[in-house]
From TrEMBL:
Entry keyword Kinase: yes
Presence of the UniProt keyword Nucleotidyltransferase in the record: no
Catalyzed chemical reaction(s): ATP + protein L-histidine = ADP + protein N-phospho-L-histidine
EC number: 2.7.13.3
Protein name: histidine kinase
Keywords (A to Z) from UniProt: ATP-binding, Kinase, Nucleotide-binding, Phosphoprotein, Transferase, Two-component regulatory system
One Pfam family cited in the UniProt record for this chain: HisKA
GO molecular function annotations of the record: ATP binding
């Protein structure tokens, strides 16, 4: 049901976006609001996408993919936002890493969500450390550590609840979707955080799906 409704919302949204872009091209001198309108339409779109994902029962088509490439892609997507906020990212890969069975589009979504959260936790800049390695149990371990605002102990249980956000522009859906995707991959996600010190998110994924 949620998926069907999502679909119905996306269609009119895409024509709205198309016409807004057209207006912007036609009246380039009066377009102060057009970029904002387009940005806000994109935002509705991404909320609807998240809701659709959560509403749909998922059968994943597992394929082999390189975790290095997935992480590199996520870094390219988030790079601009990081630069704007003076956030640097260090990636430590303890290779060689075997390819993992996954839906690479979904894993990209996971790491985009986690990386964005790390960047958003450091409005005054800082460093993010990403570490990737294979555990003794032959699981892929990916950790993302920031030096940001951290999460207060009394809020840690709310994290991942639908619409729980502490951000002015947040949706509170990112971690929910992230949790769902990791669960669909039979993986685990854990969060360790200290207020004003930073947050470390660890993702553990099976390399082979049976
Ligand atoms: P959103 O980013 O839209 O707020 P999320 O589901 O991604 O939604 O995150 C929910 C909340 O969890 C955030 O609003 C924030 O309070 C907290 N959070 C998540 N990741 C971090 C992090 N790396 N550092 C500090 N707080 C975080
Ligand atoms: Mg988020």
């Amino acid at each position: 049901m949620a998926a069907a409704i999502g679909h119905e919302i996306r269609n009119p949204l895409s024509s709205l976006k198309g016409f807004t872009q057209l207006q912007q091209e036609r009246y380039p001198n009066t377009n102060d609001f057009y970029p904002i309108m387009i940005q806000e339409i994109d935002r509705i779109n991404s909320i609807v996408n998240d809701l659709m994902y959560l509403g749909k029962p998922k059968v994943i088509e597992f394929e082999k993919a390189s975790i290095e490439e997935i992480i590199a892609y996520t870094l390219s997507i988030t790079q601009q936002q990081a630069e704007r906020q003076s956030v640097t990212v260090e990636t430590i890969i303890e290779g060689p890493l075997s390819p993992i069975d996954c839906d690479d589009k979904q894993l990209k979504q996971v790491f985009i969500n986690l990386l964005k959260n790390a960047i958003e936790a450091m409005p005054k800049g800082g460093k993010i450390k990403i570490q990737v390695k294979v555990s003794k149990e032959r699981k892929m371990l990916i950790s993302i550590e920031d030096e940001g605002c951290g999460i207060a102990e009394e809020n840690i249980l709310n994290i991942g609840e639908p619409f729980y956000t502490t951000k002015k522009d947040g949706t509170g859906l990112g971690l929910m979707v992230t949790n769902q995707i990791i669960k669909d991959h039979k993986g685990e996600l854990s969060i360790h955080s200290r207020l004003e010190k930073g947050t470390k998110v660890e993702v553990e994924l099976p390399i082979n799906q049976k």
